Inverse folding.
C-alpha cells in the first residue's frame, strides 16, 4: 500500500467513525440494537430457568450472547454500510468525493476501517456487559479466544464487503432501509440468533447455511457455549473448517460484487 493511499484510508476511517457516532438512528439500529435484544430476551425467558443439554445447562443470557455478537457483526457490516453508502449515492456525497483525489480503494478502506472500529467496540462492550451485568461466564481457554479472533475478523471483513455490494441494490437513499433491514432481520431469525439453532427444521438450517450469518453465529457458539452444546449443531459438530471456508467464499463474493457494482454516482443519475 502506497503512503498516499495509507494516508487517505487513515483519514477516511477517522471521518467515517466520527460521522457514525454522530447519527442517532445509526447508533441505535446498528450499535445498541444487539444490547437491547440481549436484554429483552434475557428478561423475557430467564424465568424458565437454565437451558441446554443435561449437565451443560446455562443461563438464557449466556445462550443468546454468541448470537448477539454475530448479529452485531452483520449489522455493523451489511446493514450499516449498505444503507449509508446508498444514502451517500442519493444525496450527492459520492459524486462530490469522486471529484477529489480520494480513490475508490481509499473510500472502501475507510468504510471497512470504520466497521472494524465500531464493530470491535460493540463486541467488547457486549462481552463485558454480559459478564458484569448478566453474570455470564466467559471462556478461559486461550484457544477459544483465538477462534473468536479469526471468526470475528473474517466475519466482519466479509460483512463489510457484502454491505458495500448490497448498497447498489436500493434505487434511492430513501428506500435503502426498506430494502436492507428486512433482509438482515430475516437472516437473524433463520441463522440461530433469535431462535435456538437446533429448534429450526432441517430444511431451514440448510437454507440458512447458504448465507454467512449462520457460519458466524456457529463460530461464536463454539467459543462461548459449553462443549456439550456441539451435539445440537448441524451434523453434531462446530465444523470450524467449514466456517472458515464458507466465510472465505462469501468474502471473495463480496469483494468481486463490490468492485463490479460500486460507482461514485448512481447509474441512472
Amino acid at each position: 500500500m502506497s503512503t498516499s493511499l495509507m494516508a487517505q484510508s487513515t483519514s477516511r476511517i477517522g471521518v467515517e467513525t466520527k460521522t457514525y457516532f454522530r447519527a442517532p438512528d445509526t447508533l441505535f439500529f446498528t450499535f445498541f440494537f444487539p444490547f437491547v435484544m440481549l436484554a429483552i430476551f434475557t428478561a423475557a425467558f430467564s424465568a424458565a430457568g437454565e437451558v441446554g443439554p443435561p449437565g451443560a445447562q446455562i443461563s438464557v443470557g449466556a445462550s443468546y450472547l454468541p448470537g448477539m455478537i454475530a448479529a452485531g457483526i452483520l449489522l455493523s457490516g451489511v446493514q450499516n454500510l449498505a444503507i449509508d453508502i446508498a444514502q451517500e449515492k442519493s444525496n450527492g456525497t459520492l459524486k462530490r468525493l469522486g471529484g477529489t483525489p480520494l480513490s475508490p480503494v481509499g473510500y472502501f478502506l475507510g468504510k471497512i476501517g470504520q466497521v472494524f472500529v465500531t464493530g470491535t467496540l460493540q463486541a467488547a462492550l457486549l462481552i463485558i456487559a454480559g459478564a458484569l451485568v448478566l453474570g455470564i461466564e466467559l471462556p478461559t481457554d486461550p484457544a477459544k479466544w483465538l477462534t473468536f479472533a479469526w471468526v470475528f475478523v473474517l466475519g466482519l471483513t466479509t460483512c463489510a464487503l457484502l454491505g458495500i455490494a448490497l448498497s447498489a441494490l436500493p434505487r434511492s437513499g430513501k428506500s435503502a432501509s426498506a430494502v436492507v433491514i428486512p433482509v438482515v432481520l430475516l437472516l437473524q431469525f433463520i441463522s440461530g440468533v433469535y431462535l435456538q439453532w437446533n429448534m429450526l427444521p432441517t430444511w431451514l438450517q440448510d437454507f440458512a447455511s447458504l448465507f454467512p450469518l449462520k457460519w458466524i453465529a456457529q463460530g461464536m457458539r463454539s467459543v462461548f457455549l459449553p462443549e456439550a452444546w456441539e451435539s445440537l449443531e448441524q451434523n453434531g459438530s462446530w465444523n470450524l473448517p467449514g466456517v472458515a471456508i464458507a466465510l472465505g467464499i462469501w468474502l471473495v463474493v463480496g469483494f468481486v460484487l463490490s468492485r463490479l457494482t460500486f460507482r461514485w454516482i448512481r447509474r441512472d443519475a
